[in-house]
Amino acid sequence: MAERFEPKIAVVGAGAMGCLFGGLLSEGGLDVTLIDVRQDQVETINRDGLKIVGYGGDRSIHVRATTDPGTVGVADVVLVHTKAYDTVVGIEGARPVIGDETVLISFQNGLGNEETIAEIVGEEKVLGGLTAQGAVPEGLGVVRNYSDLPSYVGELFGGERFGGDGAVTDRVQRIADAFSAAGLDTHASADIRRDIWKKLLGNIGLSAASGATDLSSAEMAAIPELRATIDRAVEEAVAVARADGVDIGDTEKNEVLEKLLSTSAGTGASKSSLNVDLHNRRRTEIDTIYGSVTTLARGHGVATPTLDTLIGIVKGLESQYL
Protein backbone atom coordinates (compact mmCIF):
# COMPACT_ATOMS: atom_id res chain seq x y z
CA MET A 1 0.00 0.00 0.00
CA ALA A 2 1.44 3.36 -1.03
CA GLU A 3 2.43 5.71 1.77
CA ARG A 4 0.08 8.63 2.21
CA PHE A 5 1.49 11.91 0.87
CA GLU A 6 1.36 14.55 3.58
CA PRO A 7 2.90 17.70 2.09
CA LYS A 8 4.35 20.54 4.11
CA ILE A 9 2.37 23.59 3.09
CA ALA A 10 3.04 27.33 3.12
CA VAL A 11 0.13 29.68 2.42
CA VAL A 12 1.19 33.04 1.01
CA GLY A 13 -1.50 35.55 1.96
CA ALA A 14 -3.51 35.07 5.16
CA GLY A 15 -6.68 36.78 4.03
CA ALA A 16 -10.08 35.10 4.16
CA MET A 17 -9.40 32.38 1.59
CA GLY A 18 -5.79 31.81 2.63
CA CYS A 19 -6.92 31.36 6.24
CA LEU A 20 -9.78 29.09 5.21
CA PHE A 21 -7.54 26.81 3.14
CA GLY A 22 -4.72 26.85 5.67
CA GLY A 23 -7.07 26.31 8.58
CA LEU A 24 -8.91 23.38 7.01
CA LEU A 25 -5.70 21.65 5.93
CA SER A 26 -4.11 22.17 9.33
CA GLU A 27 -7.27 20.87 11.01
CA GLY A 28 -6.93 17.82 8.76
CA GLY A 29 -3.47 17.06 10.08
CA LEU A 30 -1.13 18.67 7.54
CA ASP A 31 1.86 20.85 8.46
CA VAL A 32 0.72 24.36 7.49
CA THR A 33 2.19 27.82 7.96
CA LEU A 34 0.37 31.03 7.05
CA ILE A 35 2.60 33.83 5.71
CA ASP A 36 1.37 37.41 5.77
CA VAL A 37 2.78 40.93 6.07
CA ARG A 38 0.20 42.02 8.66
CA GLN A 39 1.77 41.70 12.09
CA ASP A 40 -1.56 42.07 13.92
CA GLN A 41 -3.15 39.25 11.92
CA VAL A 42 -0.18 36.96 12.54
CA GLU A 43 0.02 37.73 16.25
CA THR A 44 -3.72 37.16 16.73
CA ILE A 45 -3.65 33.77 14.99
CA ASN A 46 -0.59 32.63 16.94
CA ARG A 47 -2.06 33.79 20.25
CA ASP A 48 -5.74 32.87 19.90
CA GLY A 49 -5.80 30.36 17.08
CA LEU A 50 -7.53 30.80 13.73
CA LYS A 51 -11.28 31.02 14.20
CA ILE A 52 -13.52 29.62 11.46
CA VAL A 53 -17.21 30.35 11.88
CA GLY A 54 -20.30 29.46 9.89
CA TYR A 55 -20.39 26.31 7.80
CA GLY A 56 -18.94 23.32 9.63
CA GLY A 57 -19.43 24.89 13.04
CA ASP A 58 -17.61 27.63 14.93
CA ARG A 59 -14.19 26.52 16.15
CA SER A 60 -10.63 27.62 16.78
CA ILE A 61 -7.84 25.89 14.86
CA HIS A 62 -4.18 25.83 15.79
CA VAL A 63 -2.09 26.85 12.78
CA ARG A 64 1.25 28.65 12.67
CA ALA A 65 1.48 32.13 11.19
CA THR A 66 4.49 34.33 10.49
CA THR A 67 5.64 37.50 8.79
CA ASP A 68 9.10 35.95 8.21
CA PRO A 69 9.17 33.21 5.54
CA GLY A 70 12.82 32.55 6.47
CA THR A 71 11.63 30.79 9.64
CA VAL A 72 9.39 28.30 7.82
CA GLY A 73 11.80 26.08 5.91
CA VAL A 74 11.23 24.67 2.43
CA ALA A 75 7.63 23.69 1.66
CA ASP A 76 6.38 20.93 -0.60
CA VAL A 77 3.41 23.01 -1.73
CA VAL A 78 2.93 26.79 -1.67
CA LEU A 79 -0.65 28.03 -1.96
CA VAL A 80 -0.82 31.56 -3.34
CA HIS A 81 -3.75 33.50 -1.88
CA THR A 82 -2.55 37.10 -2.17
CA LYS A 83 -4.51 39.72 -4.03
CA ALA A 84 -3.53 39.47 -7.68
CA TYR A 85 -1.81 42.87 -7.63
CA ASP A 86 0.43 41.64 -4.77
CA THR A 87 1.52 38.44 -6.52
CA VAL A 88 5.05 39.54 -7.40
CA VAL A 89 5.77 40.97 -3.94
CA GLY A 90 4.29 37.89 -2.29
CA ILE A 91 6.29 35.36 -4.31
CA GLU A 92 9.54 37.31 -4.07
CA GLY A 93 9.09 37.51 -0.31
CA ALA A 94 8.33 33.80 -0.09
CA ARG A 95 11.53 32.67 -1.85
CA PRO A 96 12.93 31.05 1.35
CA VAL A 97 10.11 28.45 1.33
CA ILE A 98 10.55 27.57 -2.37
CA GLY A 99 12.94 24.68 -2.98
CA ASP A 100 13.93 22.71 -6.07
CA GLU A 101 10.89 20.42 -5.79
CA THR A 102 8.37 22.91 -4.43
CA VAL A 103 5.09 23.29 -6.33
CA LEU A 104 3.16 26.57 -6.27
CA ILE A 105 -0.60 26.70 -6.84
CA SER A 106 -2.50 29.93 -7.43
CA PHE A 107 -6.03 30.09 -6.02
CA GLN A 108 -6.34 33.77 -6.90
CA ASN A 109 -9.03 35.60 -8.83
CA GLY A 110 -8.78 36.49 -12.49
CA LEU A 111 -6.47 35.49 -15.32
CA GLY A 112 -2.69 35.59 -15.63
CA ASN A 113 -1.67 34.88 -12.04
CA GLU A 114 0.04 31.60 -12.92
CA GLU A 115 1.98 33.26 -15.72
CA THR A 116 3.18 35.95 -13.30
CA ILE A 117 4.33 33.34 -10.78
CA ALA A 118 6.01 31.29 -13.51
CA GLU A 119 8.05 34.30 -14.62
CA ILE A 120 9.60 34.33 -11.14
CA VAL A 121 10.04 30.62 -10.31
CA GLY A 122 9.73 28.83 -13.65
CA GLU A 123 6.78 27.14 -15.34
CA GLU A 124 7.79 23.70 -14.07
CA LYS A 125 6.95 24.71 -10.49
CA VAL A 126 3.51 26.16 -11.15
CA LEU A 127 0.09 24.48 -11.19
CA GLY A 128 -3.27 26.06 -11.87
CA GLY A 129 -5.92 26.06 -9.20
CA LEU A 130 -9.44 27.27 -8.53
CA THR A 131 -12.04 26.87 -5.83
CA ALA A 132 -15.78 27.20 -5.50
CA GLN A 133 -15.39 27.89 -1.78
CA GLY A 134 -16.39 31.25 -0.37
CA ALA A 135 -15.16 33.03 2.75
CA VAL A 136 -15.04 36.55 4.18
CA PRO A 137 -13.04 38.03 7.08
CA GLU A 138 -14.89 38.87 10.28
CA GLY A 139 -12.07 40.46 12.23
CA LEU A 140 -8.45 39.63 13.00
CA GLY A 141 -7.93 35.89 12.88
CA VAL A 142 -11.61 35.19 12.14
CA VAL A 143 -13.12 34.02 8.83
CA ARG A 144 -16.64 32.98 7.89
CA ASN A 145 -16.93 29.83 5.79
CA TYR A 146 -20.00 29.57 3.57
CA SER A 147 -19.81 26.08 2.17
CA ASP A 148 -17.98 22.84 1.46
CA LEU A 149 -17.63 23.20 -2.30
CA PRO A 150 -14.87 21.60 -4.41
CA SER A 151 -11.47 22.92 -5.43
CA TYR A 152 -9.42 21.87 -8.45
CA VAL A 153 -5.73 21.67 -9.38
CA GLY A 154 -4.11 20.84 -12.70
CA GLU A 155 -1.14 21.23 -15.00
CA LEU A 156 -1.15 24.52 -16.87
CA PHE A 157 2.21 24.52 -18.66
CA GLY A 158 2.64 21.14 -20.35
CA GLY A 159 2.05 18.46 -17.77
CA GLU A 160 3.58 15.73 -19.92
CA ARG A 161 7.02 16.87 -18.70
CA PHE A 162 6.23 15.64 -15.21
CA GLY A 163 4.90 12.15 -15.92
CA GLY A 164 1.42 11.05 -16.79
CA ASP A 165 -0.34 11.71 -20.08
CA GLY A 166 -0.18 15.49 -20.12
CA ALA A 167 -3.62 15.79 -18.57
CA VAL A 168 -3.69 14.57 -14.94
CA THR A 169 -0.12 13.98 -13.77
CA ASP A 170 1.06 12.02 -10.75
CA ARG A 171 1.98 15.16 -8.80
CA VAL A 172 -1.43 16.73 -9.42
CA GLN A 173 -3.25 13.58 -8.33
CA ARG A 174 -1.12 13.21 -5.19
CA ILE A 175 -1.78 16.80 -4.13
CA ALA A 176 -5.51 16.51 -4.82
CA ASP A 177 -5.68 13.26 -2.83
CA ALA A 178 -3.67 14.72 0.06
CA PHE A 179 -5.88 17.81 0.29
CA SER A 180 -9.07 15.75 0.11
CA ALA A 181 -7.81 13.36 2.79
CA ALA A 182 -7.18 16.40 5.01
CA GLY A 183 -10.73 17.65 4.54
CA LEU A 184 -10.42 20.11 1.65
CA ASP A 185 -12.39 18.51 -1.19
CA THR A 186 -9.97 18.78 -4.14
CA HIS A 187 -10.04 17.23 -7.60
CA ALA A 188 -7.40 16.73 -10.27
CA SER A 189 -8.37 18.61 -13.41
CA ALA A 190 -7.53 17.45 -16.91
CA ASP A 191 -8.16 20.96 -18.32
CA ILE A 192 -7.47 23.51 -15.59
CA ARG A 193 -7.33 26.49 -17.96
CA ARG A 194 -10.90 25.83 -19.03
CA ASP A 195 -11.93 25.30 -15.42
CA ILE A 196 -10.30 28.59 -14.40
CA TRP A 197 -12.35 30.35 -17.07
CA LYS A 198 -15.53 28.75 -15.74
CA LYS A 199 -14.70 29.98 -12.24
CA LEU A 200 -13.94 33.42 -13.69
CA LEU A 201 -17.45 33.56 -15.16
CA GLY A 202 -18.83 33.33 -11.64
CA ASN A 203 -16.54 36.14 -10.50
CA ILE A 204 -17.55 38.22 -13.51
CA GLY A 205 -21.20 37.74 -12.64
CA LEU A 206 -20.91 38.40 -8.91
CA SER A 207 -17.99 40.68 -8.09
CA ALA A 208 -18.75 44.13 -9.49
CA ALA A 209 -22.54 43.86 -9.17
CA SER A 210 -22.22 42.81 -5.53
CA GLY A 211 -19.66 45.54 -4.88
CA ALA A 212 -21.78 48.27 -6.44
CA THR A 213 -25.07 47.23 -4.77
CA ASP A 214 -23.83 45.68 -1.49
CA LEU A 215 -26.07 42.68 -2.19
CA SER A 216 -25.41 38.96 -2.05
CA SER A 217 -25.77 36.74 -5.11
CA ALA A 218 -29.16 35.43 -3.95
CA GLU A 219 -30.42 38.97 -3.30
CA MET A 220 -29.32 40.12 -6.74
CA ALA A 221 -31.11 37.18 -8.36
CA ALA A 222 -34.41 38.58 -7.03
CA ILE A 223 -34.04 41.84 -8.99
CA PRO A 224 -34.86 41.22 -12.69
CA GLU A 225 -32.93 44.21 -14.01
CA LEU A 226 -29.83 43.29 -12.02
CA ARG A 227 -30.13 39.65 -13.02
CA ALA A 228 -30.24 40.76 -16.66
CA THR A 229 -27.05 42.79 -16.18
CA ILE A 230 -25.29 39.78 -14.66
CA ASP A 231 -26.44 37.59 -17.56
CA ARG A 232 -25.05 40.08 -20.10
CA ALA A 233 -21.72 40.33 -18.29
CA VAL A 234 -21.31 36.55 -18.29
CA GLU A 235 -22.37 36.32 -21.95
CA GLU A 236 -19.66 38.82 -22.91
CA ALA A 237 -17.02 36.92 -20.93
CA VAL A 238 -18.03 33.66 -22.61
CA ALA A 239 -17.63 35.31 -26.01
CA VAL A 240 -14.09 36.39 -25.03
CA ALA A 241 -13.23 32.90 -23.78
CA ARG A 242 -14.39 31.36 -27.05
CA ALA A 243 -12.41 33.90 -29.06
CA ASP A 244 -9.36 32.99 -26.98
CA GLY A 245 -9.72 29.30 -27.76
CA VAL A 246 -11.57 28.14 -24.65
CA ASP A 247 -14.90 26.68 -25.71
CA ILE A 248 -17.44 27.30 -22.95
CA GLY A 249 -20.75 25.79 -24.00
CA ASP A 250 -24.16 27.27 -23.32
CA THR A 251 -24.96 24.45 -20.91
CA GLU A 252 -21.86 25.18 -18.86
CA LYS A 253 -22.57 28.91 -18.92
CA ASN A 254 -26.09 28.32 -17.65
CA GLU A 255 -24.81 26.01 -14.92
CA VAL A 256 -22.45 28.76 -13.72
CA LEU A 257 -25.31 31.27 -13.58
CA GLU A 258 -27.63 28.83 -11.83
CA LYS A 259 -25.06 28.05 -9.12
CA LEU A 260 -24.10 31.71 -8.77
CA LEU A 261 -27.61 33.01 -8.29
CA SER A 262 -29.37 30.10 -6.63
CA THR A 263 -30.88 30.89 -3.23
CA SER A 264 -30.06 27.32 -2.18
CA ALA A 265 -26.42 27.36 -3.25
CA GLY A 266 -23.78 27.16 -0.54
CA THR A 267 -22.51 30.64 -1.34
CA GLY A 268 -25.92 32.22 -1.97
CA ALA A 269 -25.66 34.36 1.14
CA SER A 270 -22.12 35.53 0.39
CA LYS A 271 -20.95 38.82 -1.03
CA SER A 272 -17.95 39.14 -3.30
CA SER A 273 -14.42 39.80 -2.13
CA LEU A 274 -14.56 42.94 -4.28
CA ASN A 275 -17.56 44.02 -2.20
CA VAL A 276 -15.52 43.48 0.97
CA ASP A 277 -12.62 45.49 -0.48
CA LEU A 278 -14.89 48.41 -1.31
CA HIS A 279 -16.49 48.26 2.14
CA ASN A 280 -13.03 48.36 3.74
CA ARG A 281 -11.85 51.10 1.35
CA ARG A 282 -9.13 48.95 -0.15
CA ARG A 283 -7.91 48.60 -3.69
CA THR A 284 -10.06 46.04 -5.53
CA GLU A 285 -9.12 43.36 -8.06
CA ILE A 286 -11.27 44.94 -10.77
CA ASP A 287 -8.30 45.08 -13.17
CA THR A 288 -7.51 41.39 -12.72
CA ILE A 289 -11.04 39.98 -12.72
CA TYR A 290 -12.57 42.24 -15.38
CA GLY A 291 -9.64 44.07 -16.94
CA SER A 292 -7.88 40.84 -17.92
CA VAL A 293 -10.98 39.83 -19.87
CA THR A 294 -11.56 43.19 -21.56
CA THR A 295 -7.90 43.35 -22.57
CA LEU A 296 -8.26 39.97 -24.30
CA ALA A 297 -11.52 41.17 -25.82
CA ARG A 298 -9.87 44.15 -27.47
CA GLY A 299 -7.20 41.88 -28.93
CA HIS A 300 -9.87 39.62 -30.41
CA GLY A 301 -12.21 42.38 -31.51
CA VAL A 302 -14.99 41.32 -29.11
CA ALA A 303 -17.30 44.03 -27.75
CA THR A 304 -17.78 44.09 -23.95
CA PRO A 305 -20.02 47.08 -23.15
CA THR A 306 -21.42 45.59 -19.93
CA LEU A 307 -17.99 44.65 -18.58
CA ASP A 308 -16.65 48.09 -19.50
CA THR A 309 -19.53 49.73 -17.64
CA LEU A 310 -19.00 47.60 -14.53
CA ILE A 311 -15.31 48.49 -14.54
CA GLY A 312 -16.20 52.17 -14.75
CA ILE A 313 -18.63 51.93 -11.84
CA VAL A 314 -16.13 50.17 -9.58
CA LYS A 315 -13.36 52.59 -10.57
CA GLY A 316 -15.71 55.43 -9.64
CA LEU A 317 -16.38 53.89 -6.22
CA GLU A 318 -12.65 53.38 -5.66
CA SER A 319 -11.96 57.00 -6.56
CA GLN A 320 -13.81 58.09 -3.43
CA TYR A 321 -10.94 56.88 -1.26
CA LEU A 322 -7.95 55.89 -3.41
Can you walk through the features of this model?
The chain is an alpha/beta fold and 322 residues long. The chain folds into two domains: 183 residues, Rossmann fold (3-Layer(aba) Sandwich), CATH 3.40.50.720; 125 residues, N-(1-d-carboxylethyl)-l-norvaline Dehydrogenase, domain 2 (Orthogonal Bundle), CATH 1.10.1040.10. Helix content is 45%, strand content 18%. It has twelve helices and twelve strands. The strands form two sheets. An eight-stranded mixed sheet has the order 5-2-1-6-7-8-11-12, with helices on both faces. α6 packs across α12 and α8 packs across α11. The mean pLDDT is 92.
The CATH class of the largest domain, by name, is Alpha Beta
**Backbone CA Rg:** 19 Å
**Strand/helix succession:** EHEHEEEEHEHEEEEHEHHHHHHH
Number of domains: 2
Largest sheet: 8 strands, mixed
CATH fold descriptor of the largest domain:
Rossmann fold
Distance between the termini: 57 Å
Q: Which structural category do the helix and sheet elements fall into?
A: alpha/beta
Keywords:
8-stranded mixed β-sheet, Rossmann fold, 12 helices, alpha/beta, 322 residues, N-(1-d-carboxylethyl)-l-norvaline Dehydrogenase, domain 2
Write the layout of secondary structure elements.
Elements: E1 8-12, H1 16-27, E2 31-35, H2 39-48, E3 50-54, E4 59-61, E5 64-66, E6 75-80, H3 87-93, E7 98-106, H4 113-121, E8 126-131, E9 135-137, E10 142-145, E11 151-155, H5 170-181, E12 186-188, H6 192-213, H7 217-221, H8 224-243, H9 250-261, H10 273-279, H11 286-300, H12 305-318
Parallel strand pairs: 1-2, 1-6, 2-5, 3-10, 6-7, 7-8, 11-12
Antiparallel strand pairs: 3-4, 8-11, 9-10
Helix pairs in contact: 3-4, 6-8, 6-9, 6-10, 6-12, 8-11, 11-12
